[in-house]
Amino acid sequence: MTSNDLHLDIQDDIAIIRLARGAKRNALSDGLILALRDAFEKLPSTVRAAVIDGEGPHFCAGLDLSELKERDAGQGLRHSRMWHAALELVQHGPVPVVAALHGAVVGGGLELASACHIRVADSTTFYALPEGSRGIFVGGGGSVRIPKLIGAARMTDMMMTGRVYNAEEGERAGFAQYLVPEGTAFDKALELAKRVATNAPLTNYALMHALPRIAEQPADHGFFTEALMAGIAQAAPDAKERVRAFLDGKAAKVQKS
Ligand code: 1HE
Predict the structure, then answer these.
(1) For the chain, what percent of residues have pLDDT higher than 70?
(2) Under DSSP, is residue 252 helix (H, G, I), strand (E, B) or coil?
(3) Does the keyword Lyase feature in the UniProt annotation (predicted)?
(4) Which of 39, 87, 117, 132 shows the greatest Cβ crowding within 10 Å of its Cβ?
């Protein structure tokens, strides 16, 4: 499924995916969620990283409330599972994803942001989970992903009390890894995506697929999975070349920031 509400632009090896329903604050209709799923499913194999951002004054106002139908329990369950399938492709799809955040990052918009690997927020960003006051619950994976960023206690408070985190508070709490001046989130996200795209593909794969699983495992299993992944990664020709280049003085040293 395609949608005029989602723009996909491929610049070299970076996919730029833009929510383009600015007039509706990029509210996530079913069509937009399916278009997002399709975009990640069909990314050309030359793409090595993606940036996702939102048109207009806000990143995303969450679920399109005008589509909130009176669903029976089974329909509600399937609707939530549709979101899960789409956001699973963001988190565990073909490439690392950097989210460029500004303005409202609320409800399902926060669920989408939390499925990305790196979040860059500008100083206008604010985070909220208005589901509590709308009489509903998160359904796009938020109860799994958001506590991993900020902890279950903060998420409980946000949903129970309607608490809104501003950009600085959000960065401190763990929503975003980067906080940048107003209007610069996209540029910073693109710069980071380009940097991520230069990594060995297997290293990025390990970070997307092995690290989150290891974090869920008991320590003994985690150490073993880590050893498996380390063995696979270092055996790749790419890894051998990169290490050789360093030893030959041809690769960049780590610089003090
Ligand atoms: C929308 C939506 C929406 C805006 N669904 N149409 N999400 C929410 O509860 C957040 C609801 N939205 C807001 O609180 C505000 O719109 C914002 C803070 C995001 C932005 O405020 P503002 O003043 O810039 O815009 P606005 O005037 O409120 O909205 C502009 C238009 O977008 C307006 O439509 P118009 O036809 O009158 O111009 C709004 O109705 C429309 N709009 N947000 C539908 N969300 C998988 S489960 C996830 C569950 C959730 O995400 S629940 C949280 C839903």
Answers:
(1) 99
(2) coil
(3) yes
(4) 87
Q: What is the DSSP letter of 35?
A: H
User: Is this complex scored with an ipTM above 0.85?
Assistant: yes
Task: Give me ligand 1 centre to Cα 190, in Å.
Answer: 27
Whether 1 has a pLDDT exceeding 60, the answer reads no
Ligand 1 nearest-atom number relative to CA 64: 5
Residue 19 has pLDDT above 50, yes or no: yes
Which domains, from first to last, does the chain contain? 6-197 (3.90.226.10), 201-247 (1.10.12.10)
Does the pLDDT of residue 42 top 50, yes or no?
Answer: yes
Q: What are phi and psi of 46, to 5 degrees?
A: -80, -15
| Assigned token pair, 193 | 């995506």
Q: Give me the active site residues, please.
A: 111, 131
Ligand 1 pocket, 131 CB below 6 A?
yes
Q: Model confidence at 68, in pLDDT bands (50, 70, 90)? A: confident
Does the beta carbon of 139 lie inside 6 Å of ligand 1? yes
Pocket mutation for ligand 1, best pick of 25, 78, 125 (most atoms within 8 Å of C-beta):
25
Residue with tokens 């540029």: 187
Ligand 1 centroid–CA 24 distance in Å is 6
